[in-house]
């Protein structure tokens, strides 16, 4: 049997009450299906009274059959360019005498950014005050970081390139050659993947076939890392390009950018003219092994 001393019981009672209120508020804020998922839940309430709170009832008893459990849940945040998943762990005595733990995942962003953001999250939580709600503070912290990143991405694609040193001023482009692309499923999957990773460019199906993706370097690399694992007779990353934007040349450079991702249908002669219109005439020789 797990015996609770009076002081410990009081901490549990206060923690359960505050935790319950915080989770109920969270549930009302994020009520879209699959947006909020509880993995383990020690605090469940259908009303505001302690009589209907399971853990509060446990804490009113001097003896409990087992130690009070912890709470784990996942919260999914959607931005225009990013899908973020936050996993929370609430210890038994959160928030009175213990702090929450949080881990962030985002599939369509540079892993180094996620590592840095998780490190900053731990520092942020470490500076929070015990006895006060912490979940929404963490969500607001993450939201502010990704809203700033969204602005950087929007500026990049809208041509509003800031002159400040901390703004992204380069775009990566991958040129991919395939022996052929005919499958409607594969073509649809390519489009879906570019949508998920916010990549522009084009796919020229047929035999031979060409895929060009353009966007953040990490997203281009993730695209290539995923599609090269699919079933292909032959596929190769022929060239990586980096388009730099600066205060003197951004108007000219912008003309070289693809504005969306689309599937194109044309013969080789028309394709060569298309490349020339994007100042990429040398790519034709690289793609088809004709030399520089």
TrEMBL record:
Pfam family, one: RWD
Domain Small nuclear ribonucleoprotein Prp3 C-terminal stretches: 175-247
Residue ranges of domain RWD in the record: 17-144
Database matches in InterPro entries: Phi-like (IPR017359), Prp3_C (IPR010541), RWD_dom (IPR006575), RWDD2A-B_C (IPR059181), UBQ-conjugating_enzyme/RWD (IPR016135)
Source organism superkingdom: Eukaryota
Listed CDD domains: RWDD2_C
Listed name of the protein: RWD domain-containing protein
Organism name: Romanomermis culicivorax
